Amino acid sequence: MMKCVLILIFFVSVEREHVQKKTFTKWINSHLIHVHCRVADLYTDLRDGKLLIKLLEILSGERLPKPTKGKMRIHCLENVDKALSFLYDQRVQLENLGAHDIVDGHPRLTLGLIWTIILRFQIQDVFADETDDPEKRKSKSAKDALLLWCQMKTAGYNNVNVRNFTTSWRDGLAFNAIIHKHRADLIQYERLNKSNAMHNLNNAFEVAEREFGLTKLLDVEDVNVEIPDEKSIITYVVTYYHYFSKMKQVTVQGQRIAKVVSIAMECDNMIDEYESFTSDLLKWIKAKMEELGSREFANSLRGVQDQLSEFNSYRNFEKPPKFMEKGNLEVLLFTLQSKMRANNKTPYFPKEGKTISDINKKWEELEKSEHERELALREELIRQEKLDQLAARFNRKAGMRETWLSENQRLVSQDNFGFDLAAVEAAAKKHEAIETDIFAYEERVQAVISVASELETEKYHDIDKINGRRDNVLRLWNFLLELLKGRRSRLELSLQLQHNFQEMVYILDSMEELKMRLLSDDYGKHLLGVEDLLQKHSLVEADINVLGERVKQVVQNSQRFLEEEAEDGYRPCDPSIIVERVTGLENAYGELVALAVERRSRLEESRQLWQFYWDMAEEENWIKEMGHVLSQADIGHDLTTIHLLLSKHKSLETEIRAHENSLRSSMAVGQALIDQGHFGSDKVQERLDEVNNKWDTLIGKSILVNSMALFYEHINYHIQYHFPRLFRNDGCS
Is the pLDDT of residue 51 over 70? Predict the structure, then answer.
């Protein structure tokens, strides 16, 4: 329950603050209108202190220190301090209030300051009865005096009982009663109904505004509530008091003047009137020149147009009455001087600075300021129009850039590269064309940014929106570049993969060509042929090794596509396809290596066979040669030649025996081929048998020849021994 009460109190306080703000704003504007100023937001427009100074000047009729130019906080604090110092001089109590509170726009303290000013300059001088002596007036508060005045004016009116400044005014009858009291011709009070509060309030407010020129400080909905705001009602009611009091004072003064004024007094009054009008006019000229000399323009085309409209309003409506006043002053001065001369009095001559010539000089200065103001306004208007046109162009260009960037983002986001090398290469060329177009578009993006920078330099009023759209264009551009970079990366990855696949195809083709060479059944027809085939096979093996390096590189490159992913998780191909192709390539290479090993083995076996045949042929030729030597019929004709032949035969026999090891070694090679199951084992065995037989024959011949030589040696020895004369006589055997 307590929480609800506190919430209710809070909302009531907020509502009262809102009503006070609105009422005080209207009250201030009702005075500032005389200097063609206006307050839009009470909390913000009073921060710089300038309007506050003008308000105090209007209320007091005194001249305050000139406001400090500038928009910095220190300047605002100085101006507010000038206003507060003036209030201190007027003996106005300002407790717990400093210049910083107004500059910071503190709501309650700002409202308190305005209420204090209202009390000092509007309510302080209120008194209910002119007959009261000054001491009695001092004993009464201004609020009580104003309440008593209202009670006196509304006394005798039906349904009106003014007890306070809140609930007593809700039905609007009190307002109508006060007006009816002074101007019964304006309101038909008897036709008013207490139950129709809205009509009563509207009637009183409209009559006061229309007939008396009293600003409508209150709205009907602000009064017709449960508990109206007291300060707001007091502020509005006191305007009634001052208006009707002034009306009464004017009447009384007229009566007194009619009774006691003489020609001299009339002249004096005219002098005062002249000086007063002159002072007012000069003050107005000075204030207006300061106003016209200001070069603080609204930062928008609409604002400048409004300022130009206000300037035209000044020229068309405010200035002409002042011009008439200036003419009336000349007439007044001439009339005054004529009347004084007619009454034998020394003619009145205005003080220096208030003469007609001085006024005309100031008026010329005013018109000069007016002309300069008009030129400045029109220049600012042209500038704002150009800025609006520039902003419109920016928005148009930014819209085009956003559309283009969005469309290209969708284009770059597509990864339809194809599934073969030709398609991917075509996609790469298309991507290069896209990159060229996009990079060429950067100049247009920069042009948009340049326009935004120009608007920011010129302090365009809606620069936040411009900067926001500029940032959006930059965001789209940077995002497009990222997409383009990512697509380039993915495209290069796909291109590398297709090149890798193409390399696999080339390797497989090379393998197939080498495979056909390895499957040849030509193992040589002789030893030189086999040697030639082995050399060619070595070249093939070198080619296979080169292919092996290529296969290794391709497998390594393929492994990268299996292990790595792009930053966005992109894979150029299904890993299973890569694994399948790599496996097929490795299997094909393994088969090729196996074929190469097998063919080398076959060629080595063929070389061994033909080397055996070659060795056997050599051995056979040697045996034939030895057999030919042993087959010679020369056995000697004497003992000496026999001994010589026998010695040669022994050498030959030694050579044969020495050559037997070489023969047996060559034959062991053939036997090893047989034992290994060589494909030519049958022919090897035949060759072994053939050569072995020839060797045996050679050995037999060697033994036979040796036996025959020994036999002839023995015979010749005996013949020489028994028949020495035969050998001695003729030397014949």
Answer: yes
Question: What share of the chain has pLDDT > 70, as a percent?
Answer: 72
Q: Which residue has the tokens 């030649």?
A: 641
Two structure tokens written together for 113: 């300051």
Residues 6+ apart with CB under 8 A from 337: 347, 348
Concatenated DSSP letters of 496-535: HHHHHHHHHHHHHHHHHHHHHHHT-----SSHHHHHHHHH
Q: Which class in CATH covers the domain with range 499-608?
A: mainly alpha
Q: Homologous superfamily of 2-123 in CATH?
A: Calponin-like domain (1.10.418.10)
- In this predicted model, what pLDDT tens digit does every residue of 398-422 receive, in sequence order? 889 889 988 888 877 766 665 666 6
SS3 of residue 141 by DSSP:
coil
Tell me the pLDDT tens digit for each residue of 74-86.
888 888 888 888 8
How would residue 60 be classed by pLDDT, with cut points 50, 70 and 90?
confident
Structure tokens belonging to residue 726? 């035969």
Tokens of 98: 């400093």
Question: For 449-473, how does the pLDDT look when each residue is reduced to its tens digit (9 = 90+)?
Answer: 888 888 888 888 888 888 898 899 8
For the chain, give me the number of helices (H) and strands (E)?
23, 0
Ordered alpha helix ranges (H), 61-172? 73-89, 99-103, 107-118, 134-139, 142-154
Q: What is the CATH number of domain 631-729?
A: 1.20.58.60
Fold of the domain built from segment(s) 134-260: Actin-binding Protein, T-fimbrin; domain 1 (1.10.418)
C-alpha to C-alpha distance for 80 and 88, rounded to whole angstroms: 12
Q: Is 571 exposed, middle or buried (0-12, 13-18, 19+ CB in 10 A)?
A: middle
In this structure, how many other beta carbons lie within 10 angstroms of the beta carbon of residue 469? 19
Instruction: Please say whether the structural domain 394-489 has been given the CATH code 1.20.58.60.
Output: yes
Amino acid at 570: Y
Residues of the chain with CATH 1.10.418.10: 2-123, 134-260
Average pLDDT over residues 116-138: 67
Cα 357-363-369 angle, rounded to 5 deg:
145
Beta-carbon neighbour count of residue 364 at 10 Å?
10
State which amino acid sits at residue 668.
A
Judged by phi (left if over 0) then psi (alpha if -120 to 50, else beta), residue 49 lies in: left
Q: Which two tokens stand for residue 730?
A: 């003729």
